[in-house]
Fold:
Amino acid sequence: MVANPFASLLEHGDPATAAGYVDHPPRMGFFTDTSVCIGCKACEVACKEWNHVPEGGLQFTGMSYDNTVGLGADTWRHVAFIEQRKRVGQQVTGAAADGAAPAESGIRWLMASDVCKHCTHAACLDVCPTGALFRTEFGTVVVQEDVCNGCGYCIPACPYGVIDQRHGDGRAWKCTLCYDRLGVGAEPACAKACPTDSIQFGTLEELHLRADRRLAQLHGAGVSDARLYGRDPDDGVGGDGAFFLLLDEPEVYGLPPDPIVTTRDLPAMWRRVATAAALVAGTVAVSFTRKAP
Amino acid sequence: MNETDVTKDGQRHVRPGREATTGVHTGPGVEHVPSAARPARGRGEQAMVPAAEFGSYYGKPIINQPVWESPDIPGYLFLGGLAGSSAVIAAGAQVTGRRGLARVAKVGAAASAALSTVALVHDLGRRGRFLNMLRTFKPTSPMSVGSWILASFGPAAAVAAGSDLTGVAPGIGAAATVGAAVLGPPLATYTAALISDTAVPAWHDAHRDMPFVFAASAVTSAAGLGMLGAPVEERGPVRLLGALGGAAELATERLMEARMGLAREAFDEGRAARYHKGAQALLVAGTLSSLTARRSRFLGAVAGASLLAGSALTRFAIFEAGLASAKDPRYTVVPQRARLEARRTRPSEGPRSNGDHPAAPPTGTE
Ligand code: SF4
Ligand code: SF4
Structure:
């Protein structure tokens, strides 16, 4: 608990410290480097297995190789699969017969494993009225399923469309960054299962260094599309605990291009709510002292 | 091409693993041509997703859809406003000796507070855990603040109404009337923060004006109820309030839309548009008839009913516009992209400037 809930987190502060932890472990997170993702969905499966996430309905979407569509109560890792008429850097896409120059299909595949961002300023956590959502000592954001009453407030509050209500259960669910595994020093199931190291787990500090190095490497190799998403501690959510290297604009992957934590505007809203309340009282008072026309 | 790099002598190429420079030409037998120098072929750089002026992932929404349902939640917004404003009217009527109006307002406040609690609990995914709302107090959560307001307002309004109806303990009844009147205005307006404090474009973008729309709408509905129920000779104040509230609701709603940006378009489609048109017509009718319904019991009832219904439809229209704006990624992507571009072209303004918002970022308290 902090005295002033609206001004507790310093500009680049650590969310666990801001939440009142003293002597806590370093902030842990994910760096998802989508440039090496092969779209195998091992992360989706590993997450379901470890966290007992039920199936979310079996359907054929026709959306390329993606039938899980997006993050939700029953999908905590989601592998986006994008087909574009675009070349990947200077790579030649398309099949080639021996010796011959390959036929240029001009199609590229982008694959990206999406997950809860474990925001520095997490709207879901801010708006949760029961305290079911809380900040862990690792700086991650977790729902306590024995407290959540399914009010559903966190769901439209999340600027990324991560957390959702589980049908037939009523409560809100999302990625916990494998809180149970972190507690015993193990890495999250998805990162463990990823065969290409597209999902990298570690202290956020170390991941930032790795990501910056990787971005420089790709830019040096001429992959000018490469960019980091959620890496900037000055962005609208104070930076993500789980951030990404993308090869196109964020919205192409279903990510908001410039998310802002909604509670940033809440102090302004409360001021206006107070003014409006005073107007209600004042107008009614006046109406009892005036004669109606 | 049926070759493998894994041979009896080991692997032929050293695999770069996570250092792989995807996108860089590495294959054998193809001359290196920078992509910019290649002639454009086929359809060029065109996404497979349906052509649109903004990028999206197969047209899927960016944010998850609110699970709040109609009529529970729009009904809750309406009833909270009705209850809160009625409690203030009850106190005014009590002080000025309008017994009939006081009774209608007190009973209205208590009944709508009770109904709104039912709507709120009904909408929970786990109804048995509704008391968890009072497990903690969080100013960063309008729902937490609202739960505490409702939890104190409800009993006060019930005691005030009970005492008025039965004549038992008039002293306690008067105190409860005052208590409910103090808690009423915040109950009527906090719901604006409740829905604006989300990532739903049509709700969040309206956060500056929503509290005033809700305040006006709350006054309109409570005045409408007073006009329906109070004796003709005690209707003066609520007639004035009805006209004031109705006009203010029309004006503030218009102002809110004018200042909204792209999300305003969500009010022009489907259910939101129908509710919106209905609300405007009813509010105009209600405002005019409250001004003219000086002696006519019938005209007063028509005015009261129009104002009540108009106020309710305003809440339903805003609720539905929010749902529509959450469903279409356009409302999320286009303004955010414009914001990014604006920042890119005017980097001197610092990383973020967003109108009248304070620099200190809020955070969770737990
Ligand atoms: S991404 Fe959404 S669900 Fe995850 S911490 Fe941020 S606001 Fe909460
Ligand atoms: S649904 Fe559960 S986790 Fe989400 S805000 Fe409500 S109580 Fe908190």
